[in-house]
Amino acid sequence: MTTTATAAVANEPQGKFDFETVELDDLRPDEVLVRNEASGMCHTDFVGQKTMPLPAVLGHEGAGVVEAIGSGISSVKPGDRVIVSYPSCGYCNGCLSGRPYFCDDHLTLGFSGTRLDGSHTIKLKGSKISGAFFQQSSFATHSVTVERNLVPVTKDHAAEMLAAIPCGVQTGAGSILNTFKVLPKESLAVFGAGAVGLSAVMAGKLSGAYPLIAVDIVEERLNLALELGATHVFNAKDGNVAERIKDIAPQGIDYTLETSGNEHALNDAIACLATGGECGMVIAPHLGEKYPFSPSAIFQRAANLRGIIQGSSVPKTFLPLLLNLNRQGRFPYERLIQVYDFQDINQAVIDTKSGKAIKPVLKMDV
């Protein structure tokens, strides 16, 4: 039986989303049909819009209710409420060792626009289009996803709270708690105070990091970082960021996290490291292009520079942890969220790109 959905379709790399009725492919044994209640939005969606064959249905932070399951599904049933997080293949070394964030096929699963075997999940007016974005494409009322993506949750969580966390918030918090494993009184500097960076700040407070520094160019976000636990903030527009950080941490910083994709921020994040320190990158400057980089500072400090995928998080265990911490008032990520009706997706895009919205979430009226 054909399943139809209302989807926000991207037709141009920088263009608006157009609402269309699309057809979803029949479920395979390991797939699930989810009725989306909400979907988060972040800059990763815009990367997909620029790099995937268009037209495409994007969205990679879904939350909703299971409507149908494939013949091989055992962990969820129709009526279950779920978060839809990032995809993994299930059989590479990373997946088999319980570290799906090291999946060999994570880029293909995320950005190819198809299933791993090259087949499509979405048709528009009878023609195949790019879907399966992060193996979900949640900018739609319904999504075809895979069992491995799903995190079952209880029914008392607001949809916007569920859809806000499966990518950016997970990445920021996980970088501190899972990748770095910051200990009390170890120092941490976070570059970029968006959803990822502010989630890292909140996780740094949980870890007892000191000093806990946030760097950005927007005063309102720096003020929010202070409210969420930062002990010091610096506006990068004032310059000399690494030097100012070393004024309060003369021996340098144990851990730095660069979340902005800005080359000056990455250079500062490396320059302020302590000997033996570690700088994590969740996005690279000049994404997809060569970046002129000197490894001297890393070598001289016997430091580490590492890429971080999804905060080294296993969603089935880490996302429930974040929800529990939020219930306890210890991880107040609701302060990052701005909710939009699904029909207002283009306004959400404008507000995200301008920096007005930190963590936009689209709510579906279905």
Task: Tell me what the structure shows.
The protein has 366 residues and is an alpha/beta fold. The chain has two domains: 3-163 and 332-363, Alpha-Beta Complex (Quinone Oxidoreductase, Chain A, domain 1), CATH 3.90.180.10; 171-309, Rossmann fold (3-Layer(aba) Sandwich). It is built from twelve helices and 18 strands. It has helices at 43-51, 93-96, 106-111, 159-163, 165-180, 195-207, 219-228, 241-248, 263-271, 296-300, 315-327, 345-354; strands spanning 3-10, 17-24, 31-40, 56-57, 62-69, 81-84, 122-124, 127-129, 142-146, 150-153, 188-191, 212-216, 232-235, 253-258, 273-281, 304-307, 337-341, 359-363. Strands 3, 5, 6, 9, 10, 17 and 18 form a seven-stranded mixed β-sheet that branches. The protein has a six-stranded parallel β-sheet with strand order 13-12-11-14-15-16, sandwiched between helices. Helix 6 (195-207) links the parallel strand 11 (188-191) and strand 12 (212-216). Helix 5 packs across helix 11 (315-327). The longest helix is centred in the middle third of the chain and has 16 residues, at 165-180. It is globular and about 65 Å long. The two termini are 20 Å apart. 51% of the residues are buried. The mean pLDDT is 95.
